[in-house]
Amino acid sequence: MMSQGQRLGYVFEFSVLALVFWGVPGTRALDNGLSITPTMGWLHWERFLCNVNCLQEPDNCISEQLFMQMADLMVSDGWKDAGYQYLCIDDCWMAHTRNSKGKLQADPKRFPGGIERLAHYVHSKGLKLGIYADVGNKTCAGYPGSFGHYDIDAKTFADWGVDLLKFDGCYCDTLTHLVDGYKKMSLALNRTGRSIVFSCEWPLYVRPFHKPNYTEIRQYCNHWRNFDDVSDSWQSVKQILDWSSSNQATIVDIAGPGGWNDPDMLIIGNYGLSWDQQVTQMALWAIMAAPLFMSTDLRHISPQAKALLQNKDVIAINQDPLGKQGYLLRKYHNFEVWERPLSRLAWAVAVRNLQELGGPRSYTISVTSVGRAVACKPACFITQLLPVKKELGLFEWTSTLKTKINPVGTVLFQITNQA
Ligand SMILES: *[C@@H]1O[C@H](CO)[C@@H](O)[C@H](O)[C@H]1NC(C)=O
Ligand SMILES: *[C@@H]1O[C@H](CO)[C@@H](O)[C@H](O)[C@H]1NC(C)=O
Ligand SMILES: *[C@@H]1O[C@H](CO)[C@@H](O)[C@H](O)[C@H]1NC(C)=O
């Protein structure tokens, strides 16, 4: 039983959060009917970078063959069924010059069939194709930028049958050019009449100079990168999580159907993360309502990483139709408790063990202390989803939930109200 003092403490905590996060939603989203739940797919960058050496590394270079192989596997290995629909090309697909009509063109050696044929192939598999361009004079890797060509590039992508555009912010000389460029490209995509998800890096490039205007960004983009590129390391994933929680008062409320904060790709299935660290990335990307772009080699992925990326229950949390992003609720003795409100009065709760030495540590949660004190009122059903699924049964409002978490690991729960 809780004492009266404890209870007041929880009520106080609840009201502070209510001020910060239960703010008025309803900032207008980009009106293209897309990304009503966070976009899911595969993006080549983190795993394949700008490998253009098809002579020596034919299997790992940025070529139509790579994307066709991934498309095949996305269907045959259950990725599409799990919800991963967008197969996305990042930088380094282009030829170094535009064609005689001023249009972007794919590198003719690496994409002999061109993007249009690749799009047909991808569509024939029931998937969608994403592509990459840049708001400035060059892409980050030095290929032609879209500055001065927003309309023609939008039209080219639409004509090819592209379904998503990742628009980077390198080689852009002024903030005005950057902000205007993102707006112009968004409007140019709209004018093509084709439904194209618009993935922006606008706030990432604005932030060093001034606070991004998220109200505005949400009106033009379906998701937006706020922070550095993810790399294949725990350090990188930790920094992204720290940045997200430190800035949650600014970014959490702005997310919702049609517009999401993008903490960058899932690196699960690669080299840099231990099992517990991979579980942490998956659990927290679900809590944060993040777009789920895997960047891994689907031809060589362990059954364990595959099962984690295809975990239906965790994906369902990420894709919850209420569309509210979760947040860090409290940090205590090297534990972090995160929570996310879900539809039908359900909640997701993640407990991270930040300690990077020793063994598993126990943490006890009063069920009143999560889900704004009402998740479990008068009772709830709790299921542990990660690291393994376990139905934990019925809990009363005054009860506690005891859990054990591995170092750098996370335990993810779903709380279903039994009103
Ligand atoms: C373009 O924008 C208008 C209004 O903002 C919207 O109704 C329409 O669906 C959009 N079209 C596309 C293709 O996104
Ligand atoms: C692109 O280059 C031109 C010519 O140097 C320059 O005038 C323009 O401002 C540049 N645009 C961006 C977005 O950097
Ligand atoms: C942010 O953009 C919105 C929509 O364009 C605008 O109404 C608002 O004044 C801007 N806020 C700031 C601080 O510039």
UniProtKB/TrEMBL annotation:
<keyword id="KW-0325">Glycoprotein</keyword>
<comment type="subunit">
    <text>Homodimer.</text>
</comment>
<dbReference type="Pfam" id="PF16499">
    <property type="entry name" value="Melibiase_2"/>
</dbReference>
<dbReference type="GO" id="GO:0004557">
    <property type="term" value="F:alpha-galactosidase activity"/>
</dbReference>
<keyword id="KW-0443">Lipid metabolism</keyword>
<dbReference type="GO" id="GO:0016139">
    <property type="term" value="P:glycoside catabolic process"/>
</dbReference>
<comment type="function">
    <text>Catalyzes the hydrolysis of glycosphingolipids and participates in their degradation in the lysosome.</text>
</comment>
<keyword id="KW-1015">Disulfide bond</keyword>
<keyword id="KW-0732">Signal</keyword>
<dbReference type="InterPro" id="IPR013780">
    <property type="entry name" value="Glyco_hydro_b"/>
</dbReference>
<dbReference type="GO" id="GO:0009311">
    <property type="term" value="P:oligosaccharide metabolic process"/>
</dbReference>
<dbReference type="GO" id="GO:0005576">
    <property type="term" value="C:extracellular region"/>
</dbReference>
<protein>
    <recommendedName>
        <fullName>Alpha-galactosidase</fullName>
        <ecNumber>3.2.1.-</ecNumber>
    </recommendedName>
</protein>
<dbReference type="GO" id="GO:0046479">
    <property type="term" value="P:glycosphingolipid catabolic process"/>
</dbReference>
<dbReference type="InterPro" id="IPR000111">
    <property type="entry name" value="Glyco_hydro_27/36_CS"/>
</dbReference>
<feature type="signal peptide">
    <location>
        <begin position="1"/>
        <end position="29"/>
    </location>
</feature>
<dbReference type="InterPro" id="IPR035373">
    <property type="entry name" value="Melibiase/NAGA_C"/>
</dbReference>
<keyword id="KW-0326">Glycosidase</keyword>
<dbReference type="InterPro" id="IPR013785">
    <property type="entry name" value="Aldolase_TIM"/>
</dbReference>
<dbReference type="GO" id="GO:0016020">
    <property type="term" value="C:membrane"/>
</dbReference>
<dbReference type="Pfam" id="PF17450">
    <property type="entry name" value="Melibiase_2_C"/>
</dbReference>
<keyword id="KW-0378">Hydrolase</keyword>
<comment type="similarity">
    <text>Belongs to the glycosyl hydrolase 27 family.</text>
</comment>
<dbReference type="InterPro" id="IPR017853">
    <property type="entry name" value="GH"/>
</dbReference>
<dbReference type="GO" id="GO:0005764">
    <property type="term" value="C:lysosome"/>
</dbReference>
<feature type="domain" description="Alpha galactosidase A C-terminal">
    <location>
        <begin position="323"/>
        <end position="409"/>
    </location>
</feature>
<keyword id="KW-0458">Lysosome</keyword>
<dbReference type="InterPro" id="IPR002241">
    <property type="entry name" value="Glyco_hydro_27"/>
</dbReference>
